[in-house]
Amino acid sequence: MRLLHTSDWHLGRSLHRVNLLDAQAAFIGHLVRTVREREVDAVVVSGDVYDRAVPPLAAVELFDDALHRLADLGVPTVMISGNHDSARRLGVGAGLIDRAGIHLRTDPAACAEPVVLADTHGDVAFYGLPYLEPALVKDEFGVTKAGHEAVLGAAMERVRADLATRAPGTRSVVLAHAFVTGGRASDSERDITVGGVAAVPSAVFDGVDYAALGHLHGSQTLDARVRYSGSPLPYSFSEADHRKSMWLVDLGPEGDITAERVDCPVPRALARVRGTLEDLLADPELARHEDAWVEATLTDTVRPDDPMARLCERFPHTLSLVFDPDRAPDDPDLSYAQRLQGRSDQQIAEDFVVHVRGAGPDEQEQAVLRSAFDAVRTDDTLQEVAR
């Protein structure tokens, strides 16, 4: 059976001030052509269909168009909700849409109810595990510790239990939206840390033939059976070096896997350039970036006059301007943002404790801080779900 694995469409998202809806529509057209031309048997979409819980109307219209075009092909599509989606909104009408071959899986309680498709070698069971927010689903899965590994592990126990009841030789595919150990993150993914831990081990997916992951925006192979497709478009300059693609996966009769990357159309390259303004304007090596979307970091010790306008004369698609003067680490003029760069909320809070009382928090106090940050993040998630 040939699968096309994609995820993290983030319909409705922009890149700085650039509206990406046309680029997202071009990707949908590319996906439909790939399904048709490469004789795909099933499409799997591993979450973050939308960029936010209440997407703009234009994004909803594009999603509607995608569903109709996929249904017209007669190729089944299995889709889960991600941490950016409203599971309830995305799942509206799922029972009716099922009849058109579009299978929306947004209910954690139904994670062990697979979509079963067949080829000449037998059945393939597709299990959709929507994003599992630990604080919201721990009771459903009967876990005492609200962590990603606990809830995802409990969901996979249900999957394996159901798979054990099926005919011998039944192959299996799991769709999941999570941060799995070994994956490389970028700046454009929303933090899902709970209790100071975000990642789950890839071993949680043991027992299935293929785990089609979503959440991380870079295409990655954690092992032959566990892969991220990545996002089809770049959504931050941290993705400047990404090769945007989907996975074309052939699932053999014995569950053997072969996979090929299918490149996605990207409207414009991304580039990060760094140096003094005069160097950036004069360096001939940077000519290759003149048609790219550019993030420029200026290292001038004194902020130059009208830097954005001058940069745009050479790099007309400059979207981001960052000032990072070359200074000694102990320079008192270092900005607050520079001093905090790369530090987590937990680390910043612990630094504050050191500043106030001269000693850092003990283990119990660290746990209290962690719990407070988790509570704030969970409250934000609940408010977004309510919207």
UniProtKB/TrEMBL annotation:
> Which SUPFAM superfamilies does this entry report, sorted A to Z?
Metallo-dependent phosphatases
The Calcineurin-like phosphoesterase domain extends over 1-217
What name does this protein carry?
A: Nuclease SbcCD subunit D
Every Nuclease SbcCD subunit D C-terminal domain range: 267-353
Gene name as annotated: sbcD
Oligomeric state and interaction partners are given as: Heterodimer of SbcC and SbcD.
Q: Which organism is it from?
A: Streptomyces kanamyceticus
What's the stated role of this polypeptide? SbcCD cleaves DNA hairpin structures. These structures can inhibit DNA replication and are intermediates in certain DNA recombination reactions. The complex acts as a 3'->5' double strand exonuclease that can open hairpins. It also has a 5' single-strand endonuclease activity.
Gene Ontology biological process terms in this record: DNA recombination; DNA replication
- UniProt keyword list: DNA recombination, DNA replication, Endonuclease, Exonuclease, Hydrolase, Nuclease
Looking up NCBIfam families in the UniProt record yields: sbcd
Any one GO MF term held by the record is: 3'-5' exonuclease activity
As for family, the record states: Belongs to the SbcD family.
Recorded hits in Pfam families, A to Z, give: Metallophos (PF00149), SbcD_C (PF12320)
InterPro entries xrefs: Calcineurin-like_PHP, DNA_Repair-Maintenance_Comp, Metallo-depent_PP-like, Mre11_N, SbcD, SbcD_C
